[in-house]
Amino acid sequence: MDAAAPRPKDNQGEPLPRVDGRLKVTGQAHYPADLPTGNIAYGALATSSIAKGKVTKLHLDDARAVPGLLDIVTYGDMDKVEKPKFGNSGATSVGPLHDRIIFHDGQIIALAVAETFEAAEEAAQLIRAEYEEEKPTATFDSPGTATIPAAGKSPLFKEDVKAGDFDAAYAGAAVKIDQRYSTPTQHHNPIELFSTTAFWQGDQLVVHEPSQNVTGWKVELARQLKMDPGKVRIVSPFIGGAFGSKGPMTPRTAIVAVAAKRLGRPVRCVTSRMQAFGTQTYRAETRHRIQIGAGKDGRIAAFAHEGWEVTSRPDSYVVGGTSATGRMYDYGSILTHVSLVQADRNTPGYMRSPPETPYVYALENAMDEMAVALGMDPVEFRRINEPKTEPIGKKPFSSRSLIQCYDQAAEAFGWAKRDPKVGAMRDRDWLVGMGCATAIYPTAVAPCAARVRLTVDGDVRLQCGSHEIGTGVRTVAAQMASERLGVGIDKISVEMGDSSLPPAPVSGGSISTASVCSAVLKACDAVRAKLYAGATAEGGPLAGSHNDELDLADGKIVAKSGASAKVEDVIKTMQVGAIEEYAEFAPKGATPEALKKLYAGTPEFHGGEQDEDSVKYAFGAEFVEVRINRYTREIRVPRLVGAFAAGRIMNTRTARSQLMGGMIWGIGQALHEATEIDRRYARYVNRDLQDYLVPVNADIKDLQVILVPEIDHAVNPAGVKGLGELGNVGTAAAVASAVYHATGKRIRDLPIRIEQLLA
Amino acid sequence: MSQPSALSATGLNRRSFMTGTASAAAAVPLLGSPVKAEAAHGSGAELRQPVVTSLRINKQSYELSIDPRTSLLDVLRDHAGLTGTKKGCDHGQCGACTVLVDGKRVLSCLSFAVMNGGKEVTTIEGLASSDGALHPMQQAFIDHDAFQCGYCTPGQIMSAIGCVNEGHAQSEGDIREYMSGNICRCAAYPNIVAAIMQARDETKGA
């Protein structure tokens, strides 16, 4: 019908409209801060104005004098609560109200609660602190940083990968580059503000908060509040953009829960856009040194990638993208090392393709430089270095369609028409440049549970504690149930985003479609098995048929013989009102504790480079055209083409939208996004959407997504590779490549701004 | 040394501006006579006294007792129970709170509710007809998958209707320009443009 609904190719599902589309266009989709809650009190945060030191005194009298003020939660009030833990479910180990030490600018120092939002904000602004202030360390090159090796600091980053003898191979290479690249601090800035609404029902706590991980948060919040996790419920039916920012819980949640308990009424705290910069996580700034050595034939013999990443003093958040860059091409020899650089900052965290966005940017910009050094076409250079097995462990790829992606994207883009000479392509006052880069993202899957009920009326109720962050997971789960149970999508209702539902893993790492659909598949097949048993039982409508001769379609069980029975009638003969199955899916290679860990909110991830049999990645190729004004150096990106292969595509519409959104994120990485830091005070400066630039409608013109067919049975039972984080990997390097092609200037520090092109 | 909290130290929002101007005026008599400044200071408390405000929202009348500092956005969400209108920045920078006031698009976070007496406010909840039929713009957003998470969507749709009625949807380029006050972080932009192109002719006068 139109670009938004691509015609499915092999192994691709129908582009059904989102099952929750109507709710979203009518304002009836309830995000956590929308959920009706009676007798609510409003909370507002007061935050520190220094980045390092100690709070010596708080002046609360002015705040307490505000009419309508109900309570102030501050130092001393959290003493009976455990401090947060840094990890999967926790954004930081800093318990901001547990002690008076200030670890970063914008740290919570109090929560003011009042009858109205206006009074709460007024009171919060009247809270004054006295500090014993120390000189903070802001970031790279600031006095006082501490640099430590990253390997082993995170369970997700165990080692610096290496293979072969890099030094010898690099020394002997005919053509080589040795360059440095950098990426800035970035904040997710989902449009939904961060918020917590908490209320108590007797000894049970209910929290409405946008979350990518309701099960993990339930367990972690219960630990902090010293409660039985069964008495904590996290509700997050719709999430207004997440991108990793709502994966780990922040200390605010417990503070608001304590306020609600003290007042005996619901408390809602909506964090301001400005305060979110310091109270939530962000993408760490990174630096890279890349060395590539190759023969004159373009075959890479040596690859080294060294990375440095800023983290906080108390928590070692590791970006660690060398695991992916080290497996990208057939390098010959590989040497990597990652270091953490500690500064007086809030703890960074996951932001859309956390390791790959910065690390693959550096690699792909370097690959483009290397192609220039070799005098080769950049697509051809990648083709020559396409590996047969992954270069570190020499395991096969479960599937790898990178070259098909390059071929299809290049064709659609018109790459053959590119004049490779720098500055050769012009259109009146505009310098035209064309560039390309590779996208890669590991394919992982985690244990997941789901409950499916089929009623005698043919209605299906599907329950799974996953999270609708905009990916369309409700829609694809319904599609899987529709396919397996032979009922129309309109007969299926999907419940998600509630920790009282069967647990699902954190919606991060692009695992949700694979994990949720695998669990739904298992539950639906169990329902089918019961139905078939009922149909073929003695006295059943299809008695005598074997299960493997049966199929389910259009509300009927159909036997190979042609005989059929309505599902409704089969359920009636079984003398039940509904068939319900609860399924727990555990991926291949899962440990015996895998399901227990799912319920504990610490799910195991499988896939990527961890499996014994093969390494599992999704790939893509992106091409961009840039236009740079010859006088003003204004940079525009009028055209993007991306081709991606990600196993089975459940729904071509939602898949295309995610990839498109990712590519536009890539434009943001390339040209717009950077959180600026005042080095004197270790403080973020551009803390709003006016000064933190993100792409807007006028920044995007033609954008084409090509879904390259790919079949991969090894990744998971659903055959699905995640793609939510694939689209924004590589884009920034493709832009840098195109900017070089247009101007001859190699920009290595993101974002690429006019001033870098003026000199 | 006593320091103000970061909130007030680094950026006045309009609330602190309102309460802040009173004391600023008192501290800087050059801006007016001392008597006037005293009067201004005295009015601070009155600013917080609830006022009864009559509003017309989606063709219904509301009589609400509100803090006069309350934005139209917060009145819609917290007092009228119309949570379809979203808060994304509270600074007029993201467009998520866009509503129509007398048919024109307005950022409801930058408008005090009390300024809207006697005007007709239309929110996302007021678009579909009572029989449930969607406004052509709502249907077009579904058809073209013009959203992912859906959070900015009510603002996008209200803004799109305003954009069409302003005559700023003549071309795709026009739409991209005049819809750039509505940020979609999921970046459904090409789909939003396609949706507006589809619904444009049906929307005029709808």
What does this structure look like?
The complex is a heterodimer of chains A (759) and B (206). In chain A, 25% of the residues lie in helices and 25% in strands. In chain A, strand 11, helix 5 and strand 12 form a beta-alpha-beta unit. The mean pLDDT of chain A is 97. Chain A is globular, with a radius of gyration of 27 Å. Chain A is of the alpha+beta class. Chain B has 3 domains: 6-47, no CATH class; 51-122, Roll (Ubiquitin-like (UB roll)); 136-203, Orthogonal Bundle (DNA polymerase, domain 1). Helix content of chain B is 41%, strand content 14%. Chain B has 8 helices and 6 strands; from the N terminus they run βαααββαβββαααα. Chain B has helices at residues 6-10, 14-27, 34-47, 72-79, 136-143, 153-166, 172-178, 189-203, and strands spanning 2-4, 51-57, 60-66, 98-101, 104-107, 120-122. In chain B, helix 5 runs antiparallel to helix 8 (189-203). In chain B, 49% of the residues are buried. Chains A and B meet through helix 1, strand 1, helix 3, strand 6 and helix 7 of A and strand 1, helix 1, helix 2, helix 4 and helix 5 of B. Strand 6 of chain A pairs antiparallel with strand 1 of chain B, so a sheet runs across the interface.
Distinctive features:
heterodimer, A: 759 residues, alpha+beta, Aldehyde Oxidoreductase, domain 4, B: alpha+beta, Ubiquitin-like (UB roll), DNA polymerase, domain 1, 5-stranded mixed beta sheet, disordered N terminus
Question: Strand share of the residues of chain A?
Answer: 15-25%
CATH superfamily of the domain at 355-443 and 608-661 and 699-759 in chain A, by name, is: Aldehyde oxidase/xanthine dehydrogenase, molybdopterin binding domain
> Largest sheet of chain B, order of strands side by side?
3-2-6-4-5
The number of E-state strands of chain A comes to 32
Strand order of the largest sheet of chain A: 3-5-1-13-10-11-12
Count of helical regions of chain A: 18
Oligomer: heterodimer
First CA to last CA of chain B: what distance?
A: 60 Å
Name the poorly predicted regions of chain B: 1-43
What percent of residues of chain A adopt helix (DSSP H or I)? 10-25%
- Chain-averaged pLDDT of chain A: 97
